[in-house]
Write a structure and sequence with these properties.
2 copies of one chain form a homodimer. The first copy, chain A, folds into 2 domains: 81 residues, Winged helix-like DNA-binding domain superfamily/Winged helix DNA-binding domain (Arc Repressor Mutant, subunit A, Orthogonal Bundle), CATH 1.10.10; 103 residues, 3-Layer(aba) Sandwich (Oxidized Rhodanese, domain 1), CATH 3.40.250.10. Chain A has 10 helices and 7 strands. In chain A, 47% of the residues lie in helices and 13% in strands. The first copy, chain A, binds a DNA duplex (30 and 30 nucleotides) through helix 4.
DNA sequence: ACATTAATTCATGATATACTGAAATAATGA
DNA sequence: TCATTATTTCAGTATATCATGAATTAATGT
């Protein structure tokens, strides 16, 4: 007897196995921000290219990601929004269940000065009213793949050198990949240490879009004249 | 440098590893129906008691389940609704992504005659109007842990012998653990082969409760006089 | 055709995980 | 106290998975 229930749960476990590796979760997390070629994924996840390629192979074998060729590069992307939501659900359960994750998030991921994150609704309203500068501190490829309309793109690594691009008077709201990303917290810390008024939005672009707010795509950051 | 990002994703992967085993997924799926002691879990999941105990130990080590002692028995339960939703999200992604799962679901889990599953809203309305008998075909402990108010409890294994308890005229809507459970499909098949009008509801009690409909608890099935 | 760049494949050794069955622990009731 | 029942622990063996680095394949542009 090949029990269909056993086979069904073997199928479920196949997906579970994919989620059982730090490296694959890093890759899936990166892909939540948009499609990327192998070399970019390897670099941003801190993996060797062959190792990343092997993990991507697993992800493709289970149809969690799809690929597209453009010239010499092969771009990987998540197969569906469902996959992104699964990864997020896993992260949220880990945050809720594991004391070590809770401590990490409160130690490294919650600068006490930056605690008051602004909500998506509030940010949207204040953007409409022209009250704030929205700052996207993710890598340029992620900004290009999708960002909050009107947001200025300054990757976290370039922030110190490009502070003069930001107007001194206006309040700045920084955002990054989402609640488990460090970038926006680091950004707020640095902006404040230079005397700028800054806070952050906890959510990422996908959350923003899920909530029904508009998303813009393309390379060029809005000019601040 | 002990990279906090690495540590964070190691935490995520710890939860992923828990989901990487058929046996643990079976246990989590059973626990989605309510708390159960080890022996029941082992039997219903088709595992030896020591094996089930070891897996439950893993689940408890990651705080995905909690325990309560009652006399000699230790009851396990899911730590939070978030865990149930994570498991369900995993199942849905597997259903969407894996051809083998899709085929299993369509081959074994979708009797062509029983295709037209009634939705939760429709069922609720028809229950209010007294049009249908609702039939819960899960094991008695799951019925006792929570069921649709007014539902009759006849475990799938006892259905053939207890057909006379069901009125011949009225339409019957059977439900079970949810979309990846066989019971309600088998029930509809058997009821129809005995000339009864029957269909099924796809969702389980947790879905029913999530949608805001009421849930009853307790052992005794409604008497059909 | 050839050199270049991007990505994949594969063999390998190291590590981790699974299930089994025997033994130990823990609470209960006679 | 002792036997009973429920559960856990543990050693041992089999199996699976991981990261590495060398070799290979694939597309591009000269």
């Amino acid at each position: 007897m090949t029990n269909p229930k056993i086979e069904l749960f073997d199928g479920f476990a196949r997906i579970g196995k994919v989620l059982a590796s730090r490296s694959r979760l890093l890759l899936l997390d990166l892909l939540s921000q948009g499609e990327k070629p192998v070399e970019t994924l390897a670099e941003q996840a801190g993996l060797s290219v062959p190792n990343a390629s092997n993990h991507l192979r697993e992800l493709r074998a289970t149809s969690l990601v799809r690929t597209r060729r453009d010239g010499q590069q092969i771009y990987y992307r998540l197969a569906s929004p469902r996959v992104r939501k699964l990864v997020r659900s896993l992260q949220d359960v880990a945050h809720e269940s594991l004391a070590e994750v809770r401590e990490l998030v409160s130690d490294f991921y919650q600068d006490p000065d930056a605690l008051e994150a602004v909500g998506m609704e509030t940010l949207n309203r204040r953007v409409q009213e022209g009250e704030v500068i929205v700052l996207d501190v993710r890598p340029p490829d992620e900004y290009a793949a999708g960002h909050i309309p009107g947001a200025v793109s300054i990757p976290i690594g370039e922030l110190e050198q490009r502070l003069q691009e930001l107007p001194a008077g206006q309040e700045i709201v920084a955002y990054c990949r989402g609640p488990y990303c460090l970038f926006s917290r680091q950004a707020v810390e640095r902006l404040r240490s230079h005397g700028l008024r800054a806070c952050r939005m906890e959510e990422g672009v996908a959350d923003w879009e899920d909530r029904g707010f508009p998303v813009a795509a393309g390379e060029s950051s809005r000019s601040l004249e």
